[in-house]
Write a structure and sequence with these properties.
single chain; about 260 residues; alpha/beta; 6-stranded mixed beta sheet; globular
Length: about 260
């Protein structure tokens, strides 16, 4: 969640702030670049405007068995360490640490890491987001979000915007009705259309890794589409990619 306070003010970095911001939070992308992305978004919002983004939810295949997690691309684009005093306030609400659950679902950053690692200005447990959200939105001039009702909402945040919202959330509904709510997608699309030098470098690396995987695949004979698909996905990761950008379209014989 990003709250614009002083739109139009240049983004500044304080040289005395002790938190590191030049390390790479993700391969090739520094924490400072994530901060600049958030500052760019804040500069597009009106004074006291609020932008709300939701992270992806864990999807379950059957019972406690879940699918591989894939983060929302806009949330991933904007989150990371930030630095300096700027024109926005960065609120980050996450799931609290839970060693027992993390043994099964994987490690959680927790509320302290939201401050120390992702350098949020305010952090909190996602379970308690309703009170904080009401306070923040209550002072907003406009709210920008693409959050929408979902019949399968499972996270506390998503339930606030779903048709299954409990009656105790009526206060939030009334607040949302009292402010102008606009879509965020077009603003983010305009920002993401312009790639930084580091983004272009990463895209080139991904292209090289993909090209090498396809070249290796074409040098071999394949008896099944499944084997070729598995080889491509394995080789993408072996060459340094985290995952496939899209599901490979693999077809042979009469299916081609």
């Amino acid at each position: 969640m990003f709250q614009s306070k002083r739109p139009g003010r240049p983004y500044t970095v304080s040289p005395v702030r002790p938190k590191p911001f030049l390390i790479d939070l993700t391969p090739g992308i520094s924490a400072l670049e994530y901060a600049q992305r958030r500052s760019n978004l804040a500069s597009k919002l009106p004074k006291n405007g609020v932008a709300i983004l939701a992270a992806s939810e864990l999807k379950y295949r059957s019972g406690p068995v879940f699918y591989e997690f894939h983060q929302d691309s806009d949330f991933f684009y904007l989150t990371g360490k930030s630095a300096g005093e700027g024109d926005h306030i960065f609120h980050l609400f996450v799931r609290a640490k839970d060693p027992k659950v993390e043994q099964w679902e994987g490690s959680r950053s927790g509320t302290q890491a939201a401050l120390d690692v992702f350098n949020a200005d305010e952090s909190g447990d996602i379970k308690n987001i309703e009170n904080s959200l009401s306070r923040i939105i209550g002072d907003a001039s406009e709210v920008f979000t693409d959050a929408s009702p979902s019949a399968t909402a499972t996270s506390p945040f998503s339930r606030l915007f779903s048709n299954r919202t409990p009656s105790k959330s009526n206060a939030l509904s009334k607040i949302l009705e009292s402010v102008t709510v606009k879509p965020l997608r077009s603003i983010l699309n305009d920002l993401r259309n312009i790639k930084s030098d580091t983004e272009i470098a990463n895209m080139r690396k991904a292209g090289q890794a993909s090209g090498r995987a396809f070249t290796e695949a074409m040098r071999q004979a394949w008896t099944t589409e499944k084997d070729l698909n598995a080889f491509l996905e394995y080789t993408f990761k072996r060459n340094g990619c985290d995952a496939s950008a899209y599901v490979p379209v693999v077809a042979g014989g009469k299916n081609a």
